[in-house]
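Journal club prep — side note

Before the paper discussion, L.F. wants everyone to see what a predicted structure for a comparable chain looks like in token form. Sequence:
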Amino acid sequence: MSYDLAPEAEQDLADASDYYLGEAGAAVALSFLARFEKVANLLVLFPSIGTKTSKGRRWFPLGDYPYSVLYREHDGVLRISAVFHQMQRPRFWQRREP
């Protein structure tokens, strides 16, 4: 299985990494992206480890950062629909496609 980022999730990831780049520097921004990649690959291997939400989706925290990944497994692909900050815009991702 592989993973795929929805365009909105790509933008979420870019916005978060840009924030870390501006506020904490390149090392932290790269660390954030590496942590995302590690979590995405973990979810590919173990897609059921996330917490269930609506519409067959699950979420899983990035751990070292206050962000979570919203995803759904469909036809052998892990579709990531959001990368969201846990304290900002609660539940904004509910409007996104599964």
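L.F.'s comment for the group: Residues 29 and 91 are 24 Å apart (CA to CA). Keep this in mind when we get to the figures.
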